[in-house]
Amino acid sequence: MKAFSRVVAERDNLGGTRLTVLHSESPLLLRRTGPTTVHLVGGGAGPLRGDDLRLDIAVGPGATLEIRSVAAQLALPGRDHLPPSRFEITATVAAGATLRWHPEPMIAAAGCDHHTITRVDVAEGGTLLWRDDLVCGRHHEDSGNVRLDTTIRYAGTTLYRHDLAVGPAAPGWSGPAILGGGRAIGTIVFAPDTMPATSGPGDYALMPLAGPGMLATAIADDIRPVQAALDPLCEPTRALAHT
Amino acid sequence: MSGMSLATLLVLADGRLPSGGHAHSGGLEAQVSAGRVRDLDAVADFLRGKLATSGLVSAAFAAAACAHPSEWAALDQGLDSRTPSPALRKASRAQGRALLRAARAMWTMPLTGRDLHQPVALGVVAAAAGLGPAAAAVAAAHGTTSGAASAAVRLLGLDPYAVHGLLARLAPECDRIAADAAARADDPVDDLPAAGAPLLDIGAELHATWEVRLFAS
């Protein structure tokens, strides 16, 4: 399945946000659910092997956009001869604009082979919250192969560059250097927000990046402790605190 | 790697090079304390994961810095963006600084920043020593595993023969990763490997808050 969906948010004359483009192709269906909120609503199971999905997000000067999803994304095997499923997300955030990407987790079902490529470019004076949660296998199931390949740039410089690979194709992925037997991981990148480093309890750390921003990472046996650690950081009041 | 001096590579990759590596456990101390690493099998698992992630990244940046030593600032920034943990950035720069200090007594070094990330420093030093990107990559990949392996002997009281047996079994994987890394030495910085190891980041942050520890990282 091939899909290309696109959303463009711009500031309107009244100081609110208007969506000048909201183009959806199945299974990447976008629905406006609030003044500044768009939900991805699942259009079928997947991604499956062979799927090639693209989502473009543009937030113009002074506009605010939050993207959520109604359900977890379940990466599934699909037919063997097809290439890995691919989800490519490109986002630009202009000066004075805010983008909050906060979807439900991705679940790597046994046998899946999936690659998410994220490229976010935030202009100086823009604000970003980028959250990704990943669950390695459904209940009592081995993990499939998932690679999350993320590049976040701020004011023209790469702020955060990280690839995470889980599943049988990734050497040592469940060992004590990478997930340590944990089956769920969540990360949030904030830019240009920053706070002092904190760590614990459990496998959790909030880390100021070398550039203007920070990363929160939590790892646990299942997704609930990850959400308990990261959800409070996604409260809208907190994310706006630096302004 | 034809034409290069094997003896020079051995000097650079020698654990006895006074570049401060012995003070670091490569993240192992934090995972031993968390109870995740108790025996040789867990050390093997730790090293395999580390080699595939930070080992690959270090090897690629060492190879790129060796191929393009004058690009040290952009490569150093590239490692900053791949190292979210402030404690790991600090440890990497401390080891880079110590390596550059040692290298200045060994070879004629170009002017660079004084506290480069260790893999960038290693690449610049390898170039100054007349080595090529493939040699720099293999030294970096080997260094990722050998430091943590010798820390494992001290932290867990493991049999040093068994730990070296493990390093010998990892050597072909080290070679493969180094070759992979060296083949990408000319890629733009954003396209160089960025494989992350989240527990190494979290462990380094927790470790940095301890009052008493055997290793600096």
Q: What labels describe this entry?
A:
heterodimer, A: 243 residues, mainly beta, eleven-stranded mixed sheet, 2 helices, 18 strands, B: 217 residues, mainly alpha, Urease accessory protein UreF, 9 helices, 0% strand, nickel insertion (chain A), UreD (chain A), Urease accessory protein UreD (chain A), chaperone (chain A)
Kindly describe this structure.
The complex is a heterodimer of chains A (243) and B (217). Chain A is mainly beta. Chain A has helices spanning 223-230, 236-239, and strands at residues 2-11, 17-23, 28-34, 37-42, 52-59, 64-69, 73-75, 85-93, 98-101, 106-108, 113-122, 127-135, 145-154, 157-166, 184-191, 198-199, 203-208, 214-220. The longest helix of chain A has 8 residues, at 223-230. Chain B has helices at 6-13, 28-33, 40-67, 72-81, 86-104, 118-128, 133-156, 160-183, 198-208. With 217 residues, chain B is mostly helical. In chain B, α3 (40-67) crosses α6 and α3 (40-67) packs antiparallel against α7 (133-156). Chain B has one domain (22-105, 112-205): Urease accessory protein UreF, CATH 1.10.4190. In chain B, 65% of the residues lie in helices and 0% in strands. The model of chain B has no long low-confidence stretch (mean pLDDT 95). Chain B is built from nine helices and no strands. Chains A and B meet through β14, β17 and β18 of A and α3, α4, α5 and α9 of B.
**Total discrete domains of chain A:** 1
The secondary-structure class of chain A comes to: mainly beta
Our estimate of the beta-strand percent of chain B is: under 5%
User: Greatest contact pair?
Assistant: A-B, 39 and 43 residues
Helix content of chain A: under 10%
Please tally the helical runs of chain A, counting DSSP H or I stretches of 4 or more residues: 2
Output the CATH topology of chain B.
Urease accessory protein UreF
Radius of gyration of CA atoms of chain B, rounded to a whole number: 16 Å
- The global form of chain A is globular
Question: Which residues of chain A form runs of ≥5 with pLDDT under 50?
Answer: 239-243
Mean pLDDT of chain B: 95
* CA radius of gyration of chain A: 17 Å
CATH class of chain B: Mainly Alpha
Overall average pLDDT of chain A:
94
Q: Total domains of chain B, how many? A: 1
